């Protein structure tokens, strides 16, 4: 690259010959000025000057990457803000979990770190580039992306440890037998970080994370053999169809009915499901139905009588959130997941993994927002000093960090318990704590979202530019307080679960 002196750059200081220096590099903005979204006028004011500080007041670093073509040379001035190398861990305080950098941890080892680095690299290369534009356009992820997640076994990793990992090559060189719930949590965390929780991330087969476990844990052998490989490869999609227009957290209230044919060989399914993540593009529906025996779970293939329609939410069309209608759908009785009439137990067992996964994603998303706020507060100047020099801003950051780290610690403690308990024990012993944890987590994200909006001001309600991640987070954050069980329902469940084991002999 050609090197210029500061004095040489200074000569190009008029609109028809407009150069400037940004972080050591020389930009020729003459032809770009009229197309500049921030107006030509502001560029005229910095013509011929070092505009690094002005640039970082109004733009994200990614703008420089996108417009690298405008660079015509460099100066001897040392670059102060180099773009971070690929798949690196952030050095901004609290931007990474405490164990990611150098701090010791009872839970994570080198294998977790290697996995984290590898999946971050995958996400940066394959997921992040589409995240913003696809979310805006409401486009579902491409087949290539979903297949790439299959090839690298990310789909399989998101279903947690188990026999489905046997013989698979995992990212970071992790051996399938060493893979535990901390690895799985890292997969959810990294996807949420790269793709935006309750936004583009939802399209990345998150329906599978909740729709496939019932098949894996309770489905008959033929079903596992037929369905699981095609799902884990990314060829086919599956979703969980439980909630209905008249039944959300109130699962017992579902009305989608499945009536057995007189020969006992099929169910005829009639009813609707609402808010079904990935429903618009799923091939399989893990569906809760009501029959004479009570609630059952059925695997329904997309076929005649299955219709899906996109629902517009505050999130994005990338999630494929659907209204599903089953009209006289003929389903073989072999498609029962678990025993007839025992669907409630399958649903309840599944909820734990779903809620825990939501916490993993939400902690990571909140951490990313903390990082955004810390960076903004440091580089944004008001009343002659940076925001972070104002006590009120430090108070807000402190609240966010303290809440986040408290939830993170509880979630890691529960994750550790999951690594020591089998699936049945988890269902019996962790349903209450996980319900309470998810409640605490979404209260934390409310605070993080609220404080982030106050720190970013107008930019927090602007979909592009400096605050675009904050805008998305505050717009979609509420999903977490509803999906997988509303906060109020979870608090109630948490206490009811502990009442079941309350010692009969305990007295004040
Ligand atoms: C390489 C040089 C530059 C490029 C490629 C560039 C590009 C952009 C882009 C893409 C935006 C829209 C922001 C977004 O929504 O993402 C923008 C906005 C803006 N730019 Fe630049 N810019 C450059 C230099 C500068 C400089 C040196 C200034 C100095 C004053 C400046 C001032 C602004 C302002 C005031 C806005 C509007 C910010 C807002 O709406 O909050 N730009 N610029």
From TrEMBL:
Recorded family membership: Belongs to the acyl-CoA dehydrogenase family.
Co-factor requirement: FAD
Listed name of the protein: Cytochrome b5 heme-binding domain-containing protein
Domain Cytochrome b5 heme-binding: 1-76
UniProt keyword terms in alphabetical order: FAD, Flavoprotein, Oxidoreductase
Gene Ontology MF term list: acyl-CoA dehydrogenase activity; flavin adenine dinucleotide binding
GO CC, one annotated term: cytoplasm
Superkingdom of the organism of origin: Eukaryota
Gene3D superfamilies named among the record's database cross-references: Acyl-CoA dehydrogenase/oxidase, N-terminal domain, Butyryl-CoA Dehydrogenase, subunit A, domain 2, Butyryl-CoA Dehydrogenase, subunit A, domain 3, Cytochrome b5-like heme/steroid binding domain
GO biological process, one term: fatty acid beta-oxidation using acyl-CoA dehydrogenase
Keyword Oxidoreductase in annotation: yes
